[in-house]
Amino acid sequence: MGPPARNVKDVLLLCSVSRPLTFMGSQTKKVLLAPLKHPARPFRVSSHDRSSRRGLMAGSLGELLSKTLDALMITSRLVTLVLEEDGTVVDTEEFFQTLGDNTHFMALEKGQKWTPGGNCVPARQPPRRSGIVRVTLDLYKLNPRDVIGCLNVKATMYGMYSVSYDIRCMGLKALLRSLLRVLSHAAQVTGQFLVYAGTYMLQVLANTEEQVVAGSRCRQGVTSG
């Protein structure tokens, strides 16, 4: 009778040990398989005509849909959320979680379609060209004491290529010094021109006087003869 009783005790002991292990395994499985709850994030929703706009906090797509129906007072349960900027349909939780905070959604009921807003520019629209060349003048100063400053001339061609050139003006003293140099040089040139002109005039007058004297002598010789 000794060995059978021992076997029964061993079986009872194994059962008592396996039950807690089975219970712990089932609890761990529940924790691992439980869905993760995402924190609430800010979003913006508007009606199909953008006449009503609301700001909402939601952590999942289903929660955002439910709050959108209440905020916009939509009675229909067939509502589709799309991105307000381009009309992309958001119908999966995975894609919803990839969107950033403050994403703008539009709620569309059955029969309603997304339309671009007034400030929406088509992606394929070519840039507008108002002219061939656009010239920009920018006046600035390198030193607060400068009177005139510097001038930057920038030319843009076809809205793509640009060329700029800086015209740096000097200070007041340097400007006056350069002006005096120019005036001095101009005075020297003018003086030399006057000297040459005076010399030429004197030569012309001397030649004229000699011709007059020679003419008068010839007349006197003819008269005396």
TrEMBL record:
It holds the Pfam family CIDE-N. SUPFAM superfamilies: CAD & PB1 domains. Residues 39-116 form the CIDE-N domain. Keywords: Apoptosis, Transferase. GO terms for molecular function: transferase activity. The keyword Transferase applies. InterPro entries: CIDE-N_dom, CIDEA_N. This is Lipid transferase CIDEA isoform X3. It comes from Vicugna pacos.
